[in-house]
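Worked example 2:
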Amino acid sequence: MKNKLMVSFLALVLVACGSSGSIELTKQEKEKVNGDVNVARQLLVQKAILKDASAEKLSEDDQYNLNLAKQEVEVSYYLQKKFESELNNIQVSEEEAQKYYDIHKAEIGNTPFESVKDAIVAQITYEKQTGIVNKYYEDLLNKYKIEEILKKDFPDAAQPAVEAPAAQTQAPAPAEAAPAAPAPEAKTEEKK
């Protein structure tokens, strides 16, 4: 009887230890960390947190917010991958920068062109990036008839312009992909 009790206790301890310490890096993760122990540690801590979190009972609101956050990350990642090459290969000519300088001279003041040229190039790049992403948003509005859906679901509400996904509201550095995109202008006529 004593042996059976000891075996049962050991089995219980092993099961408990196995469930609490069963995190490990996958083969792919080991390759991706490329020997960087700090990155590996970060991944393992994330796995530990997710393991603890999976035991928590989430409210319906918490689950909704978690799913919404996941969607925002997915959208941000997708947009970055979709436009990465196009957004990173935008060129601004000397003439474009000079023209921008001339148009905005009153705002810029007496600062010489060469002193503000890099900032102007960054601004023009950002505007071009924003235009690319806004075009995509406009295409989605039309493709999925989003305004029609809104009119059906919210007939009494004024239809504001559709904004960029929340994950895209911060502007990255010009060398990064997926810039923030201001909301496209609201359509006054419905395209059919």
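The radius of gyration is 26 Å. The chain is about 65% helix and 0% strand.
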